[in-house]
Amino acid sequence: MTADSSQESYPQRGAPRRRVLAAAALTPMLAGAAAPARALSSRSGEAKSRGLVQPVPTALSDWEEVAHTLGRKGDMKRKLMYHTALPRHDLRVRSHGIDVKPALALGSHVSFVRYADKSTLLMGDVVVTEQEMQTFSDALHKHKIGQTAIHKHLLAQTPDIWWIHVHAHSHHPLSLARGLRAAFDRTDTPPPLPSSRRKPGGLDTAGIDAALGVKGSVDDGIYKCVFVRRETITDGHLVLPPGLGSTSALNFQPLGDGRAAISGDCAMIASEVQDVLAALRCAGARLVELHNHGLTDEPRLFFVHFWAVGDGVRLARALRPAVAATNVVPAG
């Protein structure tokens, strides 16, 4: 791949032959820190032996021009991903009688990752209205940013909302940022509001943590419990940082008296899908979507979006088997 390749942005062009990973260590490890740490630390040696390109650490200062081009400031995730959140505070979305808060299921996110070969990977998940979707897609195509999924996170929502996964790989990160900005300018995505750490009132978050075996975090009044896949996940010849495009998440929106609306997402390999779907239904969750987020990921990942309403702790306890059916660890 050359730095001036006009095709480098498209994940489906010039992608190397799909690699087969050995299926090993698939027992879920939701408790205990030592085993997950060993599993995650083995990624580097495994990837090197396969001739893959590793992500390299960066700092906020490395992304100042990208931030200026996007017109929004981001933050660093795990010192590897420059992440920008663009919640749709402009939308008033209702699903099954519940007013959906932006942090529950209306957040657009884009991440940039620098690699050892000095290239940059862009991945993101963008919320658009049905009226915005076609022109947003046109702008992406014009700037050679790929789309790897078009799907739903919510059932029976008004207005009609869609989620688009974006993907590009280039030696020119500012070109990627300009393309993203042009696409976002086709939507009514607002500038982010000042970040809020307000607590999710009325939820027993300690009980939720104990039920799921993970320490959650607060995002603008929503309680989030996140897990990452234990395997090395690759996209073509690139090693993805843990958590990029491969997370499972349960988001809790307080409804009062300990009740919550949950918008969730499980990342699975093919052999886990049926067990997870069955476990979700046994927990009383409603299935929303089963699909892929990427085109060239290995191992091939599938994602199920689901929805549940009820007592937060009881739901977390009921949903634990669905998480336990996948090869994940709590996100650190």
From TrEMBL:
Pfam families: DUF1529. InterPro entries: TAT_signal (IPR006311), Uncharacterised_LppY/LpqO (IPR011094). This is Peptidase M23. It comes from Streptomyces glebosus.
